Fold each of these.
Amino acid sequence: MESNAMVWFRKGLRIHDNPALDRARRGSSHVFPVFVLDPSYLRPDPSASSPGSARAGLNRIRFLLDCLTDLDSSLRRLGSHLLVLRGDPDPAAVICRVIKEWRIGKLCYEFDSEPYGQARDKQVEDFTSKLGIEVFTPVSHTLFDPVEVITKNGGRPPLTYKSFVALAGEPSESLVETYSQLPPVGNVGESELLSIPTIEELGYKDIEQEEFSPFRGGETVALQRLEEALKDKEWIANFEKPKGDPSAFMKPATTVLSPYLKFGCLSSRYFYQCLQDVYQTVGKHTSPPVSLVGQLLWREFFYTVAFGTPNFNQMKGNKICKQIPWGDDEELLVAWREGRTGYPWIDAIMIQLKKWGWMHHLARHSVACFLTRGDLFIHWEKGRDVFERLLIDSDWAINNGNWLWLSCSAFFNQYHRIYSPISFGKKYDPDGKYIRHFLPMLKDMPSEYIYEPWTAPLCVQKKANCIVGKDYPRPVVAHSTASKECRRRMGEAYAKDQSIETDNKAVSGSKIV
Ligand code: FAD
């Protein structure tokens, strides 16, 4: 008797520790591994401010294609292959169609807690429940099930990291079994299957960008990167955030595993266990919130709060978000987005975002603070949108959570502590190597002026081939006065808005200079 199962890949683009794939293969004569390409995610948008689609920058699209190619190769080694379908009119509708066509009796896909994923999966659930198909949707993108944590907390998400950690407990163990063979793919009938497209086949031609992200996607790279990090047991054991140099770009100060976790090329559960194994062998190690395990728990914290908070991604209608009368100066926003604020530290970070799609955590802090409560007083949702499109690790829960944090809209309320766009970066990188790399027009500026080129005498600017106001912009605001005005406006907004839900008065934050 034939029994057809389908594993529907969305995130979770991996073979290791993949409960959906594991369940699909058990007792099935055929397994159909499917990925649906969503045209709205991939289609070039010529009106966008940088190469990519309306929803994703080119770096992330390329990263996704890498992930799919790698997944397909791994499946082929197991006697299977990835079935790539066009998501017309939308991915859920396509899945419903092929479930019928291919006589699928068992459908397996990873639980997705994001609103977009929830709505998409609801469509499929409604369809499968009518057909009486077995559906398995394990929680495997995160360490913990947000529903369980919220239930344990009486139906509300815990609103501090500490209370989250106290509730969460230990995650379940990852699957250790490795496969040598998967059941073969069944008959796909008349369905149109696509090959994994290249960037050029998607319509991205003649892209003028001299530098792309050095981070390539896929489970193979993810596991290599993890293995490399784990070799340095001392580093793992002593990892402490927010310590670490945000300007280190050739060898970043953190793992750069976020894009792999975002697409699920790396199982967070497996990562967590590897860290625990290192801790056991070395003995003494750092602890949450600053340790590497602590970083994974930040991820969990934001996933849980995001899942349990209506309108988490906006200020309006969001019970945990301070109501702040943010400005909407389009010129300032564009200057920030395009790396033209006139503050080299801020601009270099924004150019790294454009070129690489990844920046260090404290670099993200600097630019998010600058845009919102530090200098420009622009709505955090605008900055969130720019990050959402350009980051290769762009993640709905984590991105919104951190923007809420940095703008002092939720979780963190010490709005008087503002990052200096001058002295903060200088502390780590006095010579400005990071700035010189990402802002080549400043490469010959003497170190003493690299963070404040507008203070360099004209003869120095001429010698450095960089005239401020011509080759590099003047500062869009004066930090000393702009930051004072921001503090005043935040104070006013806080005084007016006392209605915020917290489960502790204040959330302790990372040290800000
Ligand atoms: P590591 O320090 O090596 O940490 C390991 C993992 O822990 C990360 O890969 C990540 O999954 C998790 N993690 C680390 N820091 C955080 C954090 N503060 N919150 C939640 N999880 C964390 N991270 C994203 O993955 N996607 C985003 O869209 C995103 N947007 C952000 C927006 C702003 C404004 C800020 C300030 C931070 C944002 N972060 C985001 C969090 C953090 O900056 C990145 O996760 C981290 O820099 C990724 O680098 P890494 O993998 O080397 O981190």
Amino acid sequence: MDVGILALQGDVSEHRAALNDLGVASRPVRRPEDLVGLDGIILPGGESTTMSMLLDSSGLADPLGKELDAGLPALGTCAGMILLSDEAVDGRPDQRCYGAIDITVRRNGFGRQLESFECELDVPALGGAPVPAVFIRAPLVETSGPDVEVLSTLAQPAPWRGGDDAAPFGAPRAVPVLCRQGVVLVAAFHPELTSDRRVHELFVSMIDGPARRGAERLEATKQVRGTEQVSGTEQVSGTERVSGTERVSGTERVLGTGEGR
Ligand code: GLN
């Protein structure tokens, strides 16, 4: 299994470490060619507006969209969740939202840097102990479509308001923070910043699962390559491999620092 991590900006090395812990090979994705032959992709936390601009300037924006449309399994955390959503309220008007999962999010909907917080989440699908969750200028899911499975919610009174039970938006409700639709998994928090690997494990199991639309993926791979046909199985050729331990260098880090735009 070969999982790509969008490595334009954000907490790339943390996701690589999480996959490495699970014995899953990963490689950074910075150019359209890097998408070839991937079994899944992670869109990390960071700054969705910056990532969106870098997606355009790197030429990755449309090829990535084609892969997602064709059913490439994807995990998006925080900013990555925003990129995979249908619509980002309070985003830049030209910001990319791939519509890979039927949710609308409000950027920085839990508040800004000072209102970042940690808590424990019940995630019945993961069983066992609650999942530790770090929220940093996190997106708030405002709406989710009928095909979206909400795997975990954060109930108000809101921990991000120091226990004040005034709802930030509308009536008090349980806010979805971990959602899945088909082969797309999104978290408003950062599973890559804790040592609990169960969210990554779930993603890896989704890649292996029956939901994957293999034939369509193969077609998209051919389009990205723009060259000869691949028959039978997907092949990875001419693709730079990066070992699981190599660090991703030159990646701008903004996670947990400063204000969102
Ligand atoms: N607020 C950031 C954004 O828009 C997301 C923050 C994060 O990923 N920690 O994109």
